[in-house]
Amino acid sequence: MRLWAKANSQELPDIESVLILGLTDGVLLIRYFSFAKRQVEGDHWYSTVTEAKRDAEEVFGVRPTAWLAMTDEKDELYQLSVMSTAGYTFDAENAEWVRSDSSD
């Protein structure tokens, strides 16, 4: 699942657009300086699409009706969306994926 929208933030005018990418566990909100040139500013993980949309509206000025569904293509974003999270857990306090302790 991919949802794209034009950003409209006076506080962050360099962010042109945002993309919500559905993962096997949660979603990423990817921020772009230029979507056409794939110039990424950064991303943030959310447990739900609703949370990502709320943040996009509050921080980047994305109106709820502005989201456009994009076709799923087997590109680098597709690979990221289906990557295995086995062996990792999400540390919500630090907002990052960390390797789980395992006894292989």
Automatic annotation (TrEMBL):
Give the protein name, as stated in the record.
Answer: Uncharacterized protein
Q: Which domain of life is it from?
A: Bacteria
Q: Which organism is it from?
A: Paraburkholderia hospita
